[in-house]
Amino acid sequence: MLKISKLHKSYPIGDSSLHVLKGIDLSVDSGEMVAIMGSSGSGKSTLLNIIGMLDELDKGEYVLDNVPIVDLNEKKAAIYRNKFLGFIFQSFNLINYKNAIENVALPLYYQGFKRKERLEKALFHLSKVGLSDWAKHLPNELSGGQKQRVAIARALAADPKLLLADEPTGALDTKTSHEIMEFLQQLNDEGKTILIVTHEEDIADMCKRIVRLKDGVIMEDKFVTQVRASQYV
């Protein structure tokens, strides 16, 4: 599904540069649920941005679903993102003036679906996250947990190969965090491949594998006995 080899990334700082990722090797198979952990400055956000095609690597190889991700211009990167990836963010990233169903339908607009089909698919995914009754509500009328469910429905709408979740529970209380993780575990049970960046140990324990970064290198990569979120919900 995903294979990264000898990945390096640096950023210029004045006359020098900051070497953020230092030869990362990472493979993720279809159906895995992987937590990427590390303190601030460890490189985990940079790694996620490169996987998400929001940033480019300096050296190394990145292959996603047998497609080499290399030399992408912005247009091609956008096409690949829409084809392969679904994004879930800590801050939800919903469009405030669009209601829930319109937010969920947005990726389908970029894939060229006609309006009627976009709304049908969006309503299906809102139903999947238990929010069909909230389809016409604006984001400011939703709780934090409901906003994140809308964001998950939007991420799923285009049927991505890989879900990338950047601190998906970071803005939520403990109970709501466990509800969101229970839903992500259900998606993974259905076969969806999920990568979660988190700094919370209890959230990482709800994944099946934990990759720990420190100073731009992988310090630990291990499979773990998954804690089911349902026991807390």
| End-to-end Cα distance | 31 Å
Radius of gyration: 18 Å
Let me know the CATH homologous superfamily. P-loop containing nucleotide triphosphate hydrolases
If helices are DSSP runs of H or I spanning 4 or more residues, what is the number of helices? 7
Mean pLDDT: 92
- Largest sheet: spatial strand order: 6-7-8-3-9-10
Could you give a short account of the major beta sheet? 6 strands, mixed
Number of domains: 1
Alpha-beta classification = alpha/beta
Query: Which CATH class applies here?
Result: Alpha Beta
Principal-axes shape call: globular
CATH topology: Rossmann fold
The CATH level-2 architecture is identified as 3-Layer(aba) Sandwich
Helix content: 25-40%
Order of helices and strands: EEEHEEHEHHHEHEHEE
Give the strand tally.
10
**Poorly predicted runs:** none
Keywords:
Rossmann fold; 233 residues; 6-stranded mixed beta sheet; alpha/beta
Structure description:
The structure is a single chain. The mean pLDDT is 92. The chain has helices spanning 44-51, 74-84, 100-110, 115-128, 144-157, 174-189, 201-204, and strands spanning 2-13, 16-28, 33-37, 59-64, 67-68, 85-89, 162-166, 193-197, 209-214, 217-223. It has 7 helices and 10 strands. The two termini are 31 Å apart. By secondary structure, the protein is an alpha/beta fold. It has one domain: P-loop containing nucleotide triphosphate hydrolases (Rossmann fold). It is globular and about 50 Å long. The strands form 2 sheets. The chain has a 6-stranded mixed beta sheet, with helices on both faces. Helix 3 (100-110) packs across helix 4 (115-128), helix 4 (115-128) packs across helix 5 (144-157) and helix 5 packs parallel to helix 6. The longest helix has 16 residues, at 174-189.
